[in-house]
C-alpha cells in the first residue's frame, strides 16, 4: 500500500471506541496524543505481572527487565542509533534541564557560547538561557518577525567568530509548525565546531526521526506525544555524551544511558515504550513496508506525513481565506507539521470553549511558546487558538472542524 489505511490505523487506538473521548473530533494532539493499543497492553501487563524490582533472579523481575531492555533496543534500531544512546527520563523538560547542567560544567571557563532561538517552546530555551547567569554567553537566533521562520544566514552570522560550542533549536515550533532543515543546520554548526541539540517534541509525533540523516548530537522528544506513556526520550550520541560531565551516580558514568539520568527510571513506562515500536512495525507490516527497523520506520514516517499533509491542507486553505484571523506558519501542508495556530480578533480561549460545545476538542493560550508569540507581535492576553492533527486524524474530522469554525467565528 502507498496510502495510509486510516481504518486500520484507528483500530489501533482504544480512544476511538471510548464513550468519553469519541464524542469529539480530537484536535489537541500537540498537547498529547492518544496512546496506541500496544502501549496500553504492555503497560497493563507490566503492572499486573512485572511490577517488582527489575532484573532480579526470579521470573517477574527478569521479564520486567527484559521488556525495559527491549524498549531501548527497538527504539534505538528504529532511529538508527546504538542502544546505549537512548536515555529515558520523566519528561523532555527534565531531560533538557539535566543536559543543561552537564553543558554548564562542560563550558565552564572556556569562553564558549551557546545559540538558542526565539522560535522554541520554553523547555528548550529557558534552561539554556539561564546559563547566562553562570557567565556563559548566550546568543539568540531570531525568527523573521513576519513569517516566524529561522533563516540560515542569520545563524551563519552568529557562528562566524568560532566561539559557539552548542546550537539548540527546534525541529519545528509548537505554534509556527514550519519544519526546520535540521540536517542543514547541524551541518552548518558542525562546520563551525559546534554541537547541536534538537527539540523534537513537536515533530516526532509525525514520524520518529532518522538520527544519522539529521546529523544532530542530541535529539529530545516526549513519548506521550508519540502514542506512548509519559516519558521523555533523549538520544544522546556517544561522542558528545561521554565528553559531557556525568549527571547520574558516579558509579554509573561508564554506561551512557545512565550517565545523564540522575533519577531512578520509571520501569513500567519504559517497558511500555516498546509498544511504540510494536505500532510502527504493525503499520509497516500492514502496508507492505519491508527492511530492517530503520527502513520500516522511514517508510512509516513517509506514510504518516503524506496522510497528514493531505488531510490538513483544506484547513490551511480555509483559514488562509479568512480576513478575521492570522494563520501562523506556512500555508503549504508539506512544509509544516499539522499543528495549526491562529491569532484571532478576540481572546482565543472562549473560542476553544465554543468549539468544545460544537464537538471539537482543542484549546487556546500561549502553549509555553511565549517567546515566538511575542516576537510575532501577538498579544499574550489574547493567546492563539491551536488545532493539532496527527496521522490518525480523518478528512471527515477536518470537515467537522471547518464547519464548527464557521459557526463559532
From TrEMBL:
One of its GO terms (molecular function) is transaminase activity. InterPro entries: Aminotrans_V_dom (IPR000192), PyrdxlP-dep_Trfase (IPR015424), PyrdxlP-dep_Trfase_major (IPR015421), PyrdxlP-dep_Trfase_small (IPR015422). It comes from the Bacteria. The keyword Cell wall biogenesis/degradation does not apply. It holds the Pfam family Aminotran_5. Keywords: Aminotransferase, Pyridoxal phosphate, Transferase. The keyword Transferase applies. Residues 26-401 form the Aminotransferase class V domain. This is Aminotransferase class V-fold PLP-dependent enzyme. It comes from Tabrizicola piscis.
